[in-house]
Amino acid sequence: MTTAGPFRSPTVTEAYVTCETLMREAARNFSYGIRLLPADKRAALSAVYAFARRLDDIGDGDLPATDKAVALAAARADITGLGASSSDPVLVALADAARRFPIPVDAFVELIDGVEMDLHEVTYESFEDLVGYCRRVAGTIGRLSLGIFGTETAHADAGAATVADELGIALQQTNILRDVREDLIIGRIYLPRTELEKAGITLGLGPDGQLGGPPDALVEYLRGCAERADEWYGRGLKLLGMLDRRSAACCGAMAGIYLRLNRRIRMDPTPVLHERMSLPGWEKAVVAARSLAGRPEVSVA
Fold first, then answer.
1. What ranges do the domains of the chain cover?
2. Residue 222 — φ and ψ, nearest 5°?
3. Contact in structure between 142 and 149 (CB atoms under 8 Å)
4. Of the candidates 297, 291, 290, 221, which has an alpha carbon nearest to the alpha carbon of residue 259?
5. Residue ranges in 101-137 assigned as alpha helix (H)
6. Which long-range contacts (CB under 8 A, 24 or more apart) does 123-130 make?
7. pLDDT single digits (tens) 277-295
8. CA spacing 20 to 30 A to 118: which of 13, 155, 237, 242?
């Protein structure tokens, strides 16, 4: 295989290799599921992930807010002009994937809207407000992925986008619970203000770096949040029954890792106060193997 030089566009094959390499190196949780897909769907989902990761890196990076806004505006233009000749391997792969699969690429615009909310340090008064944010940054990923997965029947397709959206929202709730401490360190609070106030919680870091506000009340509140997220998993995981076997295995593996983490937080949120919780690699592999065998994780809410 030739290597893309600085003065020519990469071939489609080279572009997909770039995206799949990025997926393997950066998507620790998603990589356990994506490897269960056939090659064409795996490549297409890697392209979707690569562009979504680019947006995430802009939002969470170290650039000044004004530079981030410029970068996001450029990303909007990239999506608007997708399909035009480009030397960017991610755009080349994404354009090819959109030709091969009914990917709702406009969802990327909604995803950019969500990333911009972080730039403007938006706070969330109610849980309904938070759901709106989660729909932009994670429900969109569910809908984009569904375009690649496809559905088994036309009847299933009618409601699949809504269910995929709900599953993405469930995953994002777990992300928020897992990262409460890390987000607070960089000045972000996603937990709804009215709920925190009602629970008597003012988020803060103690001298030892432990999250509190006070800790006992915070632990009980986080437990309740994990219970609520589990209800969203219960709705979103209905998507698995709408997909073909390998797409269901992929989706079940990716969602199952987050569901298992959510259960861990639900059982004992205490570790969240001082560290970023995650599952060990062997446990993620178990979840993926169970999904491939047709025995995915199931919400117990």
1. 10-105, 123-301
2. -65, -35
3. no
4. 297
5. 107-119, 127-134
6. 123/189, 123/193, 124/190, 124/191, 124/192, 124/193, 125/192, 125/193, 125/194, 126/192, 126/194, 126/195, 127/192, 127/195, 127/228, 129/192, 130/176, 130/190, 130/191, 130/192
7. 999 988 998 998 999 888 8
8. 237
Number of H helices, E strands in the chain: 14, 2
For the chain, what's the residue count? 301
Q: Where are the strands (E) in the chain, listed by range?
A: 204-205, 211-212
Eight-state DSSP code of residue 10: P
CA 83 vs. chain centroid, Å, equals: 25
Taking only the tens place, the pLDDT of each residue in 245-288 is 999 999 999 999 999 999 999 999 999 999 999 999 889 989 98
User: Position of tokens 């807010």?
Assistant: 65
The two most distant CA atoms of the chain are separated, in Å, by: 61
